[in-house]
Amino acid sequence: MERISSVKRMTRETEIEITLNLDGSGKAEVHTGIGFLDHMLEGFARHGFFDLTCHVRGDLAVDGHHTVEDTGIVLGQAISEAVGDKAGICRYGYFILPMDESLALCAVDLCGRPYLQFDCEFSARKVGELDTELVREFFYAVSYSAGMNLHLRMLQGGNNHHMIEAMFKAFAKSLDQATAAEPRLNGVLSTKGKL
pTM value? Predict the structure, then answer.
């Protein structure tokens, strides 16, 4: 069964279309209007082995907030739709990812309950054209739209580019684990019998 979703969202602030294949090979076609965000989403696709198409038109003349947050909303919706009823998947994933001096921890639970714990402080206001304060907003939007527990912690920081990239890649690896098939499982991984 293919685990592919396509989600469109149009508001007066943004127009977004995302197609996500959880069982892809890491191909990405990303155009958000923010070069560094494109780079992060391309890395997310590549390291999670997801195929991702992401086209965004946002009100960048105002600032990047709506573009980044709404992209997170739509990506979260695409994850939720692609994973479906969650039968037969591992549900949990975690990864500790090094990038030079930076070390990021990510843990994911596809439990249906949204929650974000984000422990990271940046020393720069921007990386490229991306406001660093919007990194948390992006992951908040993903976690709430996907209905996932998402914990991100910078265990060791340094270069802000490396820190953000380590988080996106750690998230990709964690999500890949969480969405992977568990052959011993019949139904969903829950004592409730439902997620």
Answer: 0.96
